[in-house]
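Appendix B. Raw example, untouched.
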Amino acid sequence: MKKIYSRLAATIAFLALCSFTFAQTNTFNASLSNSWTNAGNWSLGTIPANNQTIIIPSGLSSFIQGSVTLNGVTIKVQAGSTLTIGNGGGPNVGSLTLDAASVVSLEGNTAVLNAKPLANTSNVITLNGTIIFQGGTIYSLNPGSGSGTITGPARATGTSGGFILGALPVVLANFQANLTTGKKVAISWTTQQELNSNNFNVQRSSDGISWLNIATIKAAGNSTLPVNYSYTDGTPAKGANLYRVRINDLDGKVGYTEIKNVRINALGKISLFPNPSTDRVTISLGEVPAADWSVSLVNNAGQLVFQKKFGKSTTNVTLPLSAYAEGTYTIEINDGASKQSSKLFISRQ
């Protein structure tokens, strides 16, 4: 188990270094040029929240007046749009504070980030504890960038230390893995943006350490509109199935989604005979379990009165019941990957 946790921690650390972004389902689109904190400025009718994708569409502008703090957001300033920090100086300065999981992306060479006034050093964007944009500071990423102004394409992530050239290659949302009928797993995801994407590898693991490519899905390549992808795993393993999607860019960059865990019942249908029982009960597993398993007998007061382990090759066991009082009990079966319970009635008549 420690190895799995170590691997998961390493995966999370790796994601922080990638230029792929995984956003939540809801997207805030600016619907008019106005203050960031004006709910009417946004398509969802509320102010942008944590863990969302925030888009300023082409031809519109938004300005931040006062302090705004957000976590886990992707902010996309599209070509021909502007994000302004501040609104005229004095008490109307602006600040945007973001955590390490957030991203700011200027999507084209006419996307602009600026301060107002340009020289006011109180207008700032802080990302992962570092000031990445400030009024009065000269930026020369692209022609047109200057004191208190940055033009795109440029992006800043939690590990970039500031703005760097280039827009985000992939913004991915709503990664899901769900068990369906017939013990199949439906896997789906949506990209809200793609730039030079190549393909996606659907990967499965039982331990979080070794990963198997179970499918390769061709990517759209370049898209500014949502694209939906899906794959069905028809042969998941018994027990734990960990899923992730690897994103492959045309220039060799890779990224990974979060990990989803889908458990397949490894015990099959459990039967108890006879039930009600008097002096003994036979427990039968519908399938050979994936691992050693245990049976527990719990009384109506929730107390464990019996427990025993069996090897994974054992599918039928008979338990003596003469030592237990008449009443209702719960039989619990656990093989470490799945757990089932059934009611057992002990009768002395």
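End of appendix B.
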